[in-house]
Amino acid sequence: MTRIGVAVSAIFAAGIGLVALDAAPAHSTALAATAEPAALATGPVHLVTAPKNNEARYFVREQLASINFPSDAVGVADSVTGSLALDDKGQIVAADSKFVVDIRDLKSDRSMRDGFLQHRTLETDKYPTVTLVPKEVQGLPPLPDSGRVSFTLLGDLTVRGVTRPTSWMVKAFMRHGEVRGTASTGFTFDDFQIEKPKVGSVLSVADSIHLVYDFDLVPASGS
User: Fold this and answer.
1) H-helix or E-strand containing 204?
2) Where are the alpha helices (DSSP H) in 80-122?
3) Overall average pLDDT of the 58-78 stretch
């Protein structure tokens, strides 16, 4: 999901369009917990994005000229595809792990912001996607058949052709192979060499961008 603020509307703008780090994520898609016993899953895991319920959002704090107080610019990209594979030791299988966000349809509540981000900040005609390549998981417990898990995902995020290592906080709920949850990270415009938007209607834009990926992953065919 992620040149990003009003720039970030255009990222993940990847992960994968973005608001200040002090802004809270809009919502979580975690499944409701059940009372059934949680058996531990064993063996390798290969998950792919479900047809629905996958979207990347960016949050960026801005001060509009028409409003007397700061507000959050929030953009959403709902075209997210990819997969995550772990071996029987819980390590990332690099060849089968990658997420791609199409940011050409990144949308916020202001069409002028979206147009500026796409054509000026993110240049989506040249860089239509944002990608995340998972590299390592930290703090991943034994996976339950049903239950909640939290861990840290380290991966390389690419925005506008610039790749940087990122750390994501992941909270997920597993139920019979399906995994739903939220992954979030933060960075600055400078981290990805993105110029802050400068337009008359925006008095200021915060340095920080918050990127959130709401995911719904299901077992890959044959896994």
Assistant:
1) strand 202-205
2) 111-116
3) 81
CA dihedral 180, 186, 191, 194 (to 10 degrees): 80
Report the percentage of the chain scoring pLDDT > 70. 76
CB contact at 8 A, 19 and 185: no
What does the pLDDT look like over 190-223, one tens digit per residue?
999 988 877 656 667 788 899 999 999 999 987 6
- Taking the alpha carbons of 144, 31, 107, 194 in that order, is the dihedral positive or negative? negative
- How open is the CA angle 186-133-194, to the nearest 5 degrees? 45
Quick one: pLDDT at residue 202?
A: 67
pLDDT tens by residue, 83-142: 999 999 889 999 999 999 999 999 998 888 888 889 989 999 999 999 999 999 999 988
Three-state DSSP at 190 gives: helix
Superfamily of domain 5-219: Lipid/polyisoprenoid-binding, YceI-like (2.40.128.110)
The domains of the chain are located at 5-219
Distance CA 103, CA 14 (A): 6
| Stated pTM of the model | 0.78
How far apart CA 198 and CA 182 sit, in angstroms, is: 31
User: Using alpha carbons only, what angle is made at residue 65 by residues 63 and 69, rounded to the nearest 5 degrees?
Assistant: 45
Q: How far is the CA of 99 from the CAs of 60, 202, 220, in angstroms?
A: 22, 32, 14
